[in-house]
Amino acid sequence: MNTGILQKELHTKWIGRQTLAFHEIDSTNDEAFRRAGNGAEEGLLVMADFQTKGKGRKGRSWDSVSGGNIAMSILLRPDISPSAAPRLTLVMALACAEGIKEASGILTGIKWPNDIVVKGKKICGILTEMKVCGADPPEIVIGVGINVNTEGFPEEIRDRAASLFLESGKKQSCERVMASILERFEKYYAVFLKTGTLAELKDNYDQACVNNGRRVCVMDPKGQYEAEAVGINEKGELLIIRDDGSMDSVYAGEVSVRGIYGYA
Ligand code: BTN
């Protein structure tokens, strides 16, 4: 990653005003929290060519190939209730889908709530973590991992993983992709903060969401069932219509939704 090129490409007001670039680090999310503890400003951007302990959602690891891919985290201190923080993941998902399209021309979709997919394969993952300390605004770190120039994946994940290179057949600029995403995120974050909800962003999100109008399998702890996804509400929950015609909303923390055809 070339910070000089990034600074030229990046036209944000405050995100990335302080940028830390590492060749190798344990996790960019962890580094952002360490810096937050030392008083780093909101908007701190941490990026790395390689993470030795990259973290994924649900306690999984996020493995990255060294060089040519994106591993970045930003630090936020929004004045919102901690219960609204997971919604920022959807804001970032929207920024990623649109930013990737602008920078690379590749059309991706969002698999609710926050995986970016292309032709049913995952190309980008987002991990939002939060620390709450008393009545202070929560410290939030949003980490984004994007398979940009990966030339091939191990056989066990080949049917589920994609990269911008494999989709387009040409090398892509990580700096351009990052800049497009961060510019959009900065804009959408301001919109989000007006209400602490996705009220003004949900139409854009719904357009990008690949689950809409499709059957999904809801993994409810009380028993899994199928339904049709029809969009999100302002809290970022997925709205579904059950086979008996009743409408319900499902929350990402409580259930995981899997499409019944392929990964999406
Ligand atoms: C997922 O499981 O889909 C989320 C993956 C998030 C990976 C990114 S890479 C940059 C940041 N640092 C981490 O340790 N994880 C996130």
Architecture per CATH nomenclature, i.e. the level-2 architecture of the largest domain:
2-Layer Sandwich
Distance N to C terminus = 30 Å
How would you name the CATH homologous superfamily of the largest domain? Bira Bifunctional Protein, Domain 2
Would you identify the regions where 5 or more consecutive residues have pLDDT less than 50? none
Task: State the CATH topology of the largest domain.
Answer: BirA Bifunctional Protein, domain 2
- Strands of the widest sheet, in order across it, are 1-2-3-7-6-5-4
| Helix proportion range | 25-40%
Provide a count of the helices.
6
Order of helices and strands: HEHEEHEEEEHHHEEEEE
Quantity of strands, as a count: 12
**Shape category:** globular
CATH C-level class of the largest domain is Alpha Beta
By helix and strand content, what is the structural category? Answer: alpha+beta
What ligand species are in this complex?
biotin
Taken together, the total number of domains comes to 2
Q: How is the topology of this model organized?
A:
Blueprint: H1 3-9, E1 19-25, H2 28-37, E2 45-51, E3 70-76, H3 87-104, E4 109-111, E5 115-118, E6 121-131, E7 139-146, H4 164-168, H5 174-195, H6 202-208, E8 215-218, E9 225-232, E10 238-242, E11 247-250, E12 257-259
Parallel strand pairs: 1-2
Antiparallel strand pairs: 2-3, 3-7, 4-5, 5-6, 6-7, 8-9, 8-12, 9-10, 10-11
The chain binds biotin.
Residues 27-29, 51, 54-57, 60, 62, 71-73, 115, 125-127, 143-145 line the site of biotin.
Search tags:
SH3 type barrels, globular, seven-stranded mixed beta sheet, five-stranded antiparallel beta sheet, BirA Bifunctional Protein, domain 2, 12 strands, 264 residues
